């Protein structure tokens, strides 16, 4: 069991803040742990009373982080109004499928000017909304940020060196989150491209599934590099056409997160791809995982959107055919390798850059 040392360096002497973390899964637990170790009072909201009791009594969230002991001032609660009401800053780690309903049902609990930061890497099913857009619609008087980057929860809880990105329009939100989360093992960079940072976090999950599939099929290291690089090309092309800054995709939230999830079996999306590559049905792979793999939903939405706006995304299309149309993996690989479309140019500049 890992029980870590306090993470602030002695000279930094932080002033503790009241913060809320919404969502008692892997990432909510990891962020609650960092915040508590940094000297903050964490109001940790989850749905399940038994889970809240367990964390209160033992410091352990056995369903999601059985080997991690939570220490410091973490107050688990099943009352969202209590958690949000006591907090100066709220972090939301709820899967994209439930994100809007949780925020909408509790919108009256959020105060004007309260900082609310999404940790979620997904897209809403109808309307292609990102989580910050949902926050903007449901609690428009809050100050909104998104956190994204190569941030495997299982490594953060072990205090393994990590960097992340806080994206917000408001400089005070960026600075506050840097101060709250930053410590000797977690370095927090800032970015103003909220849309790009957030979209990158959602898109890379698709390519993690592709990489898991490739790994299961022993396609080799050259193939892995090809998939990651072409994945980066198509996800940036798509995002830039929707208004993201291309430089974001050269950074931690873009290529950084793509690398970690496409190369690590610790990624749930990678694991789903790996299981399907080994012949498992998608539904069985997801059930066995027992945690969220956002990429399987994001894939459908991005395929539809890319077709409607005319952006060429062959890896998205190929994965969709495998997961949802019963195409054989080898037939899709063959068709991707033999495709003549755009194979003569490595870079297709998005319209915004080629003008
Ligand atoms: N685990 C990781 O390494 C990272 C995860 N994320 C993102 O964080 C988000 C959450 O992921 P995880 O915590 O890892 O997922 P998880 O599968 O470990 O846990 C999901 C949590 O959400 C809760 N939940 C589901 N529906 C809910 C509802 N209707 N109301 C309240 N709670 C609900 C579940 O009870 C569970 O506690 C995802 O979008 C994921 O992409 C981001 C960075 C890293
Ligand atoms: O986003 C993540 C790491 O940055 C976690 O990825 P998975 O959801 O695939 O585990």
UniProtKB/TrEMBL annotation:
Compartmental location: Cytoplasm
Top-level taxonomic group: Bacteria
Positions of the catalytic residues: 204
Chief location of this protein within or outside the cell: cytoplasm
Function in brief: Catalyzes the reduction of the glycolytic intermediate dihydroxyacetone phosphate (DHAP) to sn-glycerol 3-phosphate (G3P), the key precursor for phospholipid synthesis.
Family the UniProt entry places it in: Belongs to the NAD-dependent glycerol-3-phosphate dehydrogenase family.
Name under which the protein is recorded: Glycerol-3-phosphate dehydrogenase [NAD(P)+]
Organism for this UniProt entry: Marinobacter azerbaijanicus
């Amino acid at each position: 069991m890992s029980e870590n040392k306090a993470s602030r360096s002695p000279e930094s002497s932080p002033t503790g803040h009241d913060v809320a973390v919404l969502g008692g899964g892997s990432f909510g637990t990891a962020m609650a742990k960092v915040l508590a170790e940094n000297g903050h009072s964490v109001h940790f909201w989850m749905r399940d009373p038994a889970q809240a009791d367990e964390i209160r009594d033992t410091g352990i969230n056995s369903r999601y982080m059985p080997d991690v002991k939570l220490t410091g001032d973490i107050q688990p609660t099943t009352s969202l109004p209590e958690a949000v009401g006591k907090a100066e800053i709220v972090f939301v780690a709820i899967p994209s499928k439930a994100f809007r309903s949780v925020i909408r049902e509790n919108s009256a609990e959020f105060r004007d000017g309260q900082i609310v930061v999404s940790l979620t890497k997904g897209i809403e099913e109808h309307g292609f909304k990102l989580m910050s857009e949902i926050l903007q619609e449901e609690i428009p008087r809050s100050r909104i940020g998104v956190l994204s980057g190569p941030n495997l929860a299982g490594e953060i809880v072990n205090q393994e060196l990590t960097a992340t990105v806080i994206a917000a329009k408001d400089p005070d939100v960026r600075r506050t989150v840097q101060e709250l989360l930053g410590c000797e093992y977690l370095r927090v960079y800032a970015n103003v491209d909220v849309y790009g940072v957030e979209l990158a976090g959602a898109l890379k999950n698709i390519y993690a599934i592709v990489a898991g599939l490739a790994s299961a099929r022993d396609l080799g290291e050259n193939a892995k590099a090809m998939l990651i690089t072409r994945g980066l090309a198509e996800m940036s092309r798509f995002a830039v056409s929707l208004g993201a800054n291309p430089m974001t995709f050269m950074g931690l939230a873009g290529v950084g997160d793509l690398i970690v999830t496409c190369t690590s079996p610790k990624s749930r999306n990678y694991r789903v791809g790996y299981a399907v590559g080994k012949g498992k049905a998608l539904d069985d792979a997801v059930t066995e995982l027992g945690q969220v793999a956002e990429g399987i939903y994001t894939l459908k939405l991005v395929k539809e959107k890319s077709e409607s706006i005319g952006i060429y995304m062959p890896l998205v299309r190929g994965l969709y055919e495998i997961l949802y149309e019963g195409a054989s993996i080898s037939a899709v690989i063959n068709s991707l390798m033999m495709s003549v479309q755009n194979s003569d140019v490595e870079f297709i500049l998005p319209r915004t850059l080629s003008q």
